[in-house]
Amino acid sequence: MAMNLMEVYKAYELSVEGTCGGMAMCASCQCYVTSETPLPEMGTDEDMMLVEAFHIEDNSRLGYQIPITPELERLEVTLAPE
Ligand code: FES
User: Fold this and answer.
1) Tell me: the pLDDT tens digits for 14-34?
2) Closest atom of ligand 1 relative to the 65 alpha carbon
3) pTM for the complete prediction?
4) Domains in the chain, number
5) Whether 3 contacts 68, CB under 8 Å
6) CATH code of residue 43
């Protein structure tokens, strides 16, 4: 369906604002990756947004930057606090 992780959060009505709609301007789709699942490299926009965001951890990623693919099977994430 060409969705990203942020869109999955929203489809399941999880408490994620996704305020900027994935424009790397809010970090409200931040999550903590808790599995060893290989993910796409972090892009410059995502990296720059996370530098400015709150509640950052070493395993922080922005959900909009994680496209849903079969390789993500068994991916585990925890949503960051709002
Ligand atoms: S929704 Fe704004 S950066 Fe993710």
Assistant:
1) 988 888 988 889 999 999 999
2) 4
3) 0.91
4) 1
5) yes
6) 3.10.20.30
